[in-house]
Amino acid sequence: MTLERTTSVKYLKGVGPKRAEALARLGIRTVGDLLYHAPHRYLDATTVTPLARASLGSEATCVGRVVTTGVLPTRRGLRVFRAVLRDDSGLLECAWPGQPFLERQIKPGQLLLVSGPVRFYHGRQLVPREFIVLAEKDEDEPGRGMILPVYPATEGLSHRQIRGLLHQHLDVLLPLAADPHPDALRARVGLAPLRDALAAVHRPATLEDAERGRRRLAFDEFSDSRWCTRGRGSWPSARAPGSASRSSASSRRD
Predict the structure, then answer these.
(1) Backbone angles phi, psi at 131, to 5 degrees
(2) Would you state the pLDDT for residue 213?
(3) What is the rounded CA–CA span in Å between residue 166 and residue 53?
(4) Residues 160 and 230 in one domain
(5) pLDDT digits (tens, 9 = 90+) for 164-207
(6) pTM above 0.90, yes or no
(7) Counted domains in the chain
């Protein structure tokens, strides 16, 4: 079928009725809504430290497969979730004090990105301030050296699954975005073309690319609100219907 911005998202490959219901809880009902579902933050995986080189006292971002997991009690009664990661360089233990519930989320075979300080506790140990599941046990690894977008998510639909949907369909969705601003205006104020901006938001090569894309979308939102405030009707919207309300809701959740 031919896609339009108003086409129901359930017709995209990999969605279906059940996942469409979860997307609807995020305000995503059409393919246009999905295209404008912007990440609320990014993880920089361009400077990943091999596990064996994570040095004591440093802040490190590492990627590795989970080998083993477990919950261990301490003498003070604190329960610590631990996971041992492996990459081509070796092994490293990660510890989450007071978070035993992570045993239900982090499983052997998953590919994790972890970021935090490296300390000594019966050996080198990284204490993640943040972690993200990059791939499940039987899934292919995403490309290394990536800027990873993290999307607003909901129960039954993780940010990883949303990232996968956008990665799969972005090249088909981008042509649906019609730029409301003429070339002369974009050149005068230094705006990227809309499709380039959306590509940079969802698939940035650098954090700077992502920021340039976000600035363009913010300009469009400001232009829309300013035009409507003057009571002169609606500016031809560069955004999908409902995207402004989703953005505000995401900000409140964060």
Answers:
(1) -145, 160
(2) 93
(3) 33
(4) yes
(5) 899 899 999 999 998 888 888 888 888 889 999 999 999 998 99
(6) no
(7) 2
Looking at residue 197, its amino acid is A
Q: At what angle do helices 194-202 and 159-173 cross, to 10 degrees?
A: 150
Q: Predicted confidence band at 108 (pLDDT cuts at 50, 70, 90)? A: very high
Residue 199 structural domain: 15-43+149-253
Q: What is the mean pLDDT of the chain?
A: 84
On whether both 55 and 38 belong to a single domain, the answer is no
- Retrieve residue 22's tokens: 């979860």
Q: Could you tell me which of 104, 197, 101, 203 has the C-alpha nearest to residue 151? A: 203
**Is the domain of 165 the same as that of 215?**
yes
Residue 249: what pLDDT? Answer: 41
Indicate the pLDDT class of residue 130, thresholds 50, 70 and 90.
confident
DSSP the chain: ----TTSBGGGSTTTHHHHHHHHHTTT--BHHHHHT---SEEEE-SSPPPGGG--TT-EEEEEEEEEEEEEEE-TTS-EEEEEEEEETTEEEEEEEET-GGGGGT--TT-EEEEEEEEEESSSEEE--SEEEEEE-TTSPPPPSS-EEEE---BTTB-HHHHHHHHHHHHHHHGGG----S-HHHHHHHTPPPHHHHHHHHHS-SSHHHHHHHHHHHHHHHHHHHHHHHTTS-----SS-TTHHHHHHHHHHH-
The CATH number given to whatever domain includes residue 82 is: 2.40.50.140
